[in-house]
Amino acid sequence: MAAQTLVVTSGKGGVGKTTTVANLGTALAKKGYKVVLIDADIGLRNLDVVMGLENRIVYNLVDIVEGKCRIEQAMIRDRKLKTLHIIPAAQTRDKDAVSPEQMKALCEQLAAENDYVIIDSPAGIERGFKNAMAGAQKALVVTTPEVSAIRDADRVIGLLEAHLLKDIHLIINRLNVKMVKKGDMMSTADIVSLLSIPLIGVVPESSEVVVSTNRGVPLVHERGSRVGQAFEKIAARLNGENIPLDDEEENGFLSRFKRIFGG
Amino acid sequence: MLKTIQNFFRQRSSADTAKQRLGVVLMHDRLDISPQLMEAIKNDIIDVLSRYMEIDRGTIKVDFEKGKDYTALISNVHIKRVYRNAAAM
Questions:
Q1: Which of A63, A144, A146, A229 lies 20 to 30 Å from A185, alpha-carbon distance?
Q2: How far is the alpha carbon of B6 from chain A, nearest alpha carbon, in Å?
């Protein structure tokens, strides 16, 4: 089976790309799939700390590309899941240390031996982002429900489409259901209608994320974590499982009303 | 309860404001039309219309409007007088 190669990206920084990559990768590996996560945010590596693997790094993405090590030498195995590996970003190099062609070649090689290759892209529309998307067949655009994040997400979607990457799905992160109900936060439907790309999942806002990042253990490992469950659903949808989009807002008054009256 | 009533009568929720503002911003971002180009379009419209009617140049407004699945160019012009034999020209 050929692997799915995905890039996780956003226009604005700090919307939860790395958290998304860590949790989706962990969720897919928990299902038994062979997963490699690539931190393509060269110069600002973070996936290693979110995964709790920072103290195992010897080689990185740039070392592979420059031929200083073999791919397997730079792949760090997850602490809990033996089918999950990450390739860390270089921390001291500039963003142009890897070319789109090199990235594409690496993704192809990894796709031959894995089920999922997930690339953590830098935010924004600079060259680093273009390198990160070069090897991907599918893109997941992460946004929060804020005007600045949504506007920047729209720019990124435009760029992805311009580079003929048309399989694009939206993840809405940090949705605050209470605020949506009060009319103080845009709803999932609002955001989807503005960006007009298909939604693949909604992740609720939660303080759990800070704790998980502090510990370096993704939330899909925590039983009963709503954030973890949201990411597990997204992973299942990526995997082609038919999980209906019953996003967080569906627990609201209106939908209960609709359910009762069959609306 | 009081809060619900207050919310009900509040002019507009911030989510609605955000949605409306973003709609305009995204439309302009996607069209990527500079103010200079807008000005050129406006002047061309004035030129074309002036062949057939006398218009109030100061009142012309050109703007975009976003519908459900379209973007429209809306132009509002005050007409002072239509030239009688414009069609024959």
A1: A229
A2: 11
